Every structure is written in C-alpha cells, then in structure tokens.
Amino acid sequence: MGSKNRAIIVILSLITFVIQGKGQTGAGQETIEMLFPGGKTKALILSFDDGMVADRRLVRLMNEYGLTGTFHLNSNKLGTKDYLAKEEVKNLYKGHEVSGHTANHPNLTDLSKIDVIYEVVEDRTELEQLTAYPVRGMSYPFGNTNDFVIEAITGLGIEYARTVGDTYNFSMPTDFLRWQPTIHLFGKTNYIPNDTANDRRESGQFYQLTNDFLKANSLALFYVWGHSWEYEGAGNKWAEVEKFFKMVSKNPDIFYTTQIGLVDYSNAFKNLKFSVDKSMVTNLSSINVFIKMKGKAFNVEAGRTKRIL
Ligand SMILES: [Zn+2]
Description:
Strands 2, 3, 4, 7, 8 and 9 form a six-stranded parallel β-sheet that branches. A three-stranded antiparallel β-sheet has the order 1-12-13. The chain is globular. The protein has eight helices and 14 strands. Strand 12 and strand 13 form a beta hairpin. The longest helix has 23 residues. The two termini are 46 Å apart. It is α/β, with parallel strands linked by helices. The site of zinc ion has 5 residues, from loops.
C-alpha cells in the first residue's frame, strides 16, 4: 500500500470518527417534529363548498357543537336562487373561515389562463368586501385542477387550494395548492342511487376512519369535506351529520382549525430558526409553535428565542 492510499484511509477513518462522535453526543440525529397547538397530535378540518342556503342549518349545528369550519363560496352565485344572500355572509360565518371557490364555479381546467385569473381574483375581491378580511385560500370547483391552473393562480394570493381526491389517510398535505382531503363526509354514500349495499360499505368506511382518527397516537390530520345541500331532502341525513359532530366535538386532544389556520401554523413551524446543534430556537411568527424533540414537547412562544436542550 502506497503512502497516498494510507493517507486516504486515515482521512476516511477520521471522517467516520467525527460523524459517529456527533451522533453519540449531539442532537444531530434527533428529528424535530411538529405538534399541533397546545402540544396536541390531532387536527380536524371540516370544509364545505358552494354557500347554499342549507349552510345556515349546518353552521348552526357546528356552532352548537363548538366545531370550526372553512366555507368555500362562489361570489357571483350569492343572492341567486338557493344560495345565501351576500348580506348574511359576514354574520353567518363568524368564527369560521370564508374561502374562495371561484366567482362562477366553472371547470377551471377548461378555461384560458386569463379566465382562471378572473375567476379567482373576482371571487377574492367580492368575498373580502363581504367578510372584511383577506381571503387567502380556495377549493377547486368539481375538485379539478392541473399544472396549468396552478401556474395561473400562482401569485394571486392563494395560499392553499383543495381538490376532491380523497386520501383516506391522516397525513399533512405535501403541497398546499394540491391539497387532498381525507374523505368526503360519509364517504361516497348516496353517490349511486338506490344502492344500499354500497351505501353501507361507504358509510362503514367513513366511521372506521373517524374511529381510527380518534384512536390515533401519532400526528394525524382528519380533513372532512362536503356540501350542506347533500343533507337536505329524503332520509334522515341531518341526524347523521349531528351524530358525526357529536363523535368529534369537545375533545381536548383535537386542534379544531380552519384550513388557513393550519397553513399558518405549518408555515410558522417551517420558519422556526434553529441553531446548528438544535439547542436553541427562535420563533419569529405571532403564533406559539409546539415541537417535539427527543420525546419531549416544547412550546416555542411567539416572537421568542428559547433554549431547548
Ligand atoms: Zn362546488
């Protein structure tokens, strides 16, 4: 073996020694995990589209059970038949989030870029007048989107947009502009008319997921979406809605949040500034952020620097 090779081996051994040494003594290998506010591990989002008059009953029921919702509205439909009046938007949704769903509910993937931009900006402008706060998210009409639509809405102040591609799991979205919910409320029950076997299967799966969420012990986001108008008409669907609300309400382990609330919290976590050895962290946001490291939970208060090791 030449002296050159020996030198390389010595250097490699040194590097290995340093890397291993770090792992044993420092926090290098400890991953920092996000917890929800209050150190909770469960979050629930309830989100409903279209802003039709049945939202009145839905919101009343949610308020009764202390639940928070995100409501996606089509501003140009408000005031027309079966839709809410513009004047009631602000009061009805107090304590909930009003979000966009485009002005006229077109299929965005069929439109030219200028029309996609119009639909989103027009909706935002009108809803902001009605609610008196910036409207920063939306859901896609019919759940349809693609790269073209996402490019068109980039830069329009939309920080999240929901599809209808249910995941049937509790993971956090990896891309807020392609946000897939967990499941439609009651699954695809009633999607196929007069198919009771399918209805039983779908609602069984929905309640199974609800129970799995309530029992989950790692970070879990349960995102349920739907439309209030689905619960009108024949059958006892409102009672079913109430049964579900009862199951998930007033649970101290759950962070009840709007969609934008979760986006803001997740961004605050991602913007935490850690020292290289992870012993110190600065939270520049206005939100208290809860994290877990080495099995311990920490509250990193808004605007503070904290020593965590
Ligand atoms: Zn819709």
